[in-house]
Amino acid sequence: MDEYLKQILKTKRIGFAVFNENLQLLGHNFRFTAYRMPADLTPQPSLWQLFSLLTGSEETIQAIITGRKSEYTIEKVNSLDPAGRITYHNLTFYSLPSHVNKSERLLCLIDDVTTQAALEQQIRQKNYEIQLVKAQLLSKDQFLASGLLGDSEPIRMVREFVHKVSNHNTTILLQGESGTGKSLVARLIHNAAATTDKSPFVEINCAAIPETLLESELFGYEKGAFTNALSSKQGLLEAADGGTLFLDEIGELPSSMQVKLLTFLETMRFRRLGGIEEKRVQLRLVAATNKNLKEAISQNEFRQDLFYRINVAALSLPPLRDLGPDVIILAEHFMRVLAIDLKKEMEGFSPAAKQKLGNYLWPGNVRELRNVIERAIIFATGDIIDASDLLIMDDFADLGNGLTKNIRLPEEGLSLEEVERDLLNQSLKQSHGNQSQAARLLGLSLDTFRYRIHKYGLTPENYR
Amino acid sequence: MTSAQNGVVYSKKICMLGTFGVGKSSLVKRFVHGIFDDTYLSTIGVQIYEKHLGPFPGACSNELNLVIWDLANIEKLTSATKTYFGGAAAAIVVFDLTRHQTFDEKRIYLQAFRDKNPRATYIFATNKSDLFATHEVPAPLTALAKSYAAPCVRTSAKTGENVARIFQMLGESLLT
Q1: What is the pLDDT of residues A58-115, one digit of tens each?
Q2: Domains, chain A, ranges and CATH?
Q3: Which terminus of chain A has fewer CB atoms gathered within 10 Å of its CB, N or C?
Q4: Interchain contact, A128 vs B136, CB within 8 Å
Q5: How many Cβ pairs within 8 Å bridge chains A and B?
Q6: Which residues numbered 12-71 in B keep a CB inside 8 Å of some CB on A?
């Protein structure tokens, strides 16, 4: 019988040891030595010397010694074998009845479960990796975008504003130059106020949707409301119910829509196009613009009553050039995040690069900074970004043999929008509708280029 | 409990809690071994570390031997998980600043830990601060941290930011 038992213990790679009522080691098999017997221990070590992991389990062990508890198992305890590989053991402590042997009170079994645990680890590793990648993709838009970086006074004021307004369900107006992070602040307000992860954040760029579609996009429509309304569709107001509706570039909202939006904001009620039923929603409206709305009012481009309705809590976002050393903080943040995306190891910026970042005025604000850093990471040869890797607008001017420096504003002035549209048009012609090529010609990222051609209603297909 | 040069050496068990991939193991490895490896290797079962802290001048120069249980797969509350929680004096609850979901998920493990250890001390670590520079405590965590009387500390296992500090804070709290 003893021989069978020995054989079983050997085959199953089980170590065991027996302890007395004072928890001194009485005896053990060879395998236990391999698992748990450091060479420098006293000849009769105590259970506590052998198993520091039992800290906190004193009562449980006492219950086993006294027979009040029959066993206690700790599953899959990790340890390293002499070769540095992870091994897994189940540790079980059994109560030994005093009538069998007066001195032996506690049996410890160490069962090597490395094979099945390693298999489990591999499966779980794959599963977790997939979930982490999914979460990263989601977070990149949802949560990373909500961080507000920097320690400068203007940024502190923005943080304070976000903190204050997030406690009240009020309408918010964000003003500031293009690229100052209006969308980001809107999202931050939403995240700070959201009680659950499911609160929707719905963003719409008023300039990006044709006037004819804007109403149906916002209010939704019922089946048959117009020729192609083959089924009913929920609008963005309904989609934002319980959350935040972010209207970007509200200064571009057509006047007919301004009236409708005002009516909605007064009552929070609306009807879908072609609908009879009045719907009511609860949402926070955050509007943003880079236009001077007061000027737009004086030119009859924006309704004064709508302005007063949305201008309950207003914030003017500081341009990047006013943030001082925060430019470096932002640049370092973009470097870390974008380096992960671009799968490059980056350490930081050289002193000359930092100086260049700090001296430039950043007319395109944070958006421009991000694009500059992205390009620098792609083209940097080492893990330090140097001044020459940072291709900013001044450098683009140099690349064009100083062409842009020779442009002079005519005395009678000009429409910047017309010039922009014309340049976009030319770039598309020159590249035969190839957007990447056209974007490169203008020194823009593909996203910015797409955004701009959409803004002016230019279609690349028409140039092919 | 054993004698030290000027005070007493206490042994306390603490558990690292949090969903997968938040950086529990990385924080412990940074604290115990001073190393960081950004390769993600999921833990199975429990990995146990020890670290000696002190003497703590504010606690009669007593010292502390921390037995740190780095736990895995605690999202699913099994009998094995509950066994892991037993006898713990404190927990460091880890969240991932770059994964909003880690703030909002159901944390049945946290309630189970509290049921098992009603007098435990807590610290909330918002980890991966090197990837996310906001200094705000994420809104969903504020109320939760308050209900556990837990300070919220930004940490980065990668840069080491506040890693030693959270264990030191916990040590002081356990001895005073």
Answers
A1: 999 999 988 899 999 999 998 887 777 888 999 999 998 876 667 888 999 998 898 8
A2: 3-118 (3.30.450.20), 140-318 (3.40.50.300), 323-391 (1.10.8.60), 408-463 (1.10.10.60)
A3: N
A4: no
A5: 127
A6: 12-13, 20-21, 40-48, 50, 65, 67, 69
